[in-house]
Specification:
Order of helices and strands: HHHHHHEEEEHHEEEHHEEEE
Helix content: 25-40%
Oligomer: single chain
Mean pLDDT: 96
Shape: globular
Structural class: alpha+beta
Low-confidence stretches: none
Number of strands: 11
Strand order of the largest sheet: 10-9-8-11
Radius of gyration: 21 Å
């Protein structure tokens, strides 16, 4: 019964996230890195049908190709940049697909024949897509001159206390420990040696980053990694992705609640690793390594660890010593992406409750700005 209820709750939450959207909202794709909401709803369903149900009694044979994301072992895939061209199947058909797979999944769970570990992986996978639904909708709406709001704006909040937390070095264990789910990239647990270091007690705020912008941070090549400076020049970056100049001359920030005045005390969100690294240099600090972040994560002196924005680290996304992917196509889940990406830690305001944990390793390319990414300084 617990597995059945967990499955139903996760599936319902995805539908609730899509509920404020029109069919047109659900079909559009704003850039190759984002996906239409309709595709997210179908792909998460495809995962259960393909890996848990084993493809038995497929709802539609073509869906095996249309909604495969990157699993080469499963077969052909529709090109990612062209997901927004899939006007068919329409949204009602995708919802019918979800209902059909949900019925079959609940029957399998009730029979006692469901692979609980694989099903749990599917639920965690869908929770990842729930966060992507929100970040993709935000990017989509940001392209609209009407600046539409997905929901109500967040109420302003005071920034937590500032300052630095001094932390001891030495030998620390990182990686998932104990019972409960984790992704394969969080294993095996192992020891790392850290020099003494300090972490900022809170995230960098919009007001602090505004000082960097107004000081010419986006015009000073000395602050930027070479590849980052090339990106600044090629794409004319002058400020964070969702910042706008108001007619009054002040700054506004676009979010799921629409355009709001820049809140100096609010955490800065939606910046790339390049921007985070440049700001850290300008502030006389650096980004933490993922081991430093995890070793400190249980300290009560740190605020905004998992409820505001994923925090960039200086660590390349690579396998832990002894890492081994799962056999078969499902083993492509994480390991194949362990190149040319950086690790983010923590969680964000879009992360479903209970999904994040201290050992969680999120990862994105260094130039990604559309995810809910933040900056925590180290030194």
């Amino acid at each position: 019964m617990a597995l059945s209820a967990a499955y139903a709750a996760v599936r319902q939450h995805s539908l609730a996230l899509a509920a404020p959207l029109s069919a047109e909202d659900c079909a559009a794709q704003s850039m190759p890195d984002a996906s239409p909401v309709k595709w997210h709803l179908a792909h998460t369903t495809w995962f259960y049908e393909t890996f848990v149900l084993g493809g038995r009694a497929a709802f539609h044979p073509a869906f095996r190709m249309l909604f495969n994301s990157y699993y080469h072992g499963v077969g052909a895939r529709h090109p990612r940049p062209q997901r927004g061209l899939l006007t068919r199947p329409d949204l009602p058909t995708v919802l019918a697909y979800r209902a059909d797979v949900d019925r079959r999944m609940q029957e399998l769970i009730a029979s006692g024949a469901a692979d609980a570990d694989l099903l749990t992986l599917g639920l965690q996978h869908e929770q990842q897509h729930q966060e992507l639904i929100l970040t993709d909708v935000l990017h989509l709406f940001s392209q609209n001159p009407l600046a539409p709001a997905y929901g109500a704006p967040l109420a302003p909040a005071a920034a937590p206390p500032d300052g630095w937390l001094q932390l001891d070095g030495g030998l620390h264990a990182i990686g998932h420990a104990g019972a409960g789910f984790c992704f394969d990239n969080e294993l095996p647990r192992h020891h790392v040696h850290l020099a003494p270091y300090a972490l900022a007690r809170r995230l960098v705020t919009q007001g602090e980053f505004l000082a960097f912008v107004e000081a010419g941070g986006y015009r000073d090549p000395a602050l930027w990694l070479s590849e980052g400076w090339d990106r600044v020049q090629a794409e004319d970056w002058q400020h964070p992705l969702y910042w706008r100049r108001a007619e009054s001359g002040g700054w506004q920030v676009f979010g799921l609640g629409g355009l709001q005045a820049l809140d100096p005390a609010a955490p800065l969100l939606h910046v790339s690793l390049y921007e985070a690294d440049a700001y850290a240099r300008w502030a006389g600090a650096r980004l933490p390594t993922e081991a430093e972040w995890e070793a400190a994560s249980g300290h009560p002196g740190l605020a905004q660890l998992a409820d505001q924005g994923w925090q960039w680290t200086s660590s390349s996304y690579a396998p832990y010593p002894g890492f081994a992917p799962a056999p078969g196509a499902v083993g492509e889940y994480n390991g194949k992406f362990m190149v040319n990406q950086y690790v983010l830690r923590g969680g964000s305001r879009y992360t479903p409750p209970g999904h994040a944990r201290p050992s969680y390793r999120n990862f994105f390319p260094a130039g990604a700005r559309w995810q809910c990414s933040a900056i925590r300084l180290a030194r």
